[in-house]
Write a structure and sequence with these properties.
The chain has 6 helices and no strands. Helix 2 runs antiparallel to helix 5 and helix 3 packs antiparallel against helix 4. It is elongated and about 65 Å long.
């Protein structure tokens, strides 16, 4: 008898072959190989952490808060508008939707319910984008 852990490993191997995982891996690779976007995200994160630490120490004026918010909004917009970052975000969202649909099948099976075709409800397709059907 195959153990649950062996089945989980098999499921993982099968998931690797899906378009959702392939797209995610390609998007991650492009992101990791882009020094510009990696540096921009790293700088954004560091600035945010430094600002949070400074705020906790109570040394931030209203003007500094406003300037920081404006600067971070601009930096965030630049990151969101970067094609590589946008592609990674879309691939991650698609992958998460896909994995959630698989988990829905598992959960439905555990509760004795009839799993929806392909793991999701057709009424949820408008918000999914997972490409199930």
């Amino acid at each position: 008898m195959t153990s649950v852990y062996e089945l989980a490993r098999n499921l993982g191997e099968e998931l690797k072959k899906t378009p959702q995982v392939e797209a995610l891996m390609e998007a991650k690779k492009a992101y990791e190989e882009s020094p510009e976007i990696s540096a921009a995200v790293e700088e954004y994160t560091k600035l945010h952490q430094d600002f949070e630490a400074k705020m906790q120490q109570g040394g931030i004026s209203a003007e500094e808060q406003k300037a920081f918010s404006e600067d971070m909004a601009k930096r965030g917009e630049e990151i969101r508008n970067n094609k590589i970052a946008a592609d990674l975000f879309a691939a991650e969202m698609n992958f998460n939707n896909f994995v959630n649909s698989v988990f829905t099948i598992i959960t439905s099976t555990l509760t004795g319910e009839e799993p929806a075709e392909n793991g999701c409800s057709p009424s949820a397709c408008a918000s999914c984008g997972g490409g199930c059907h």
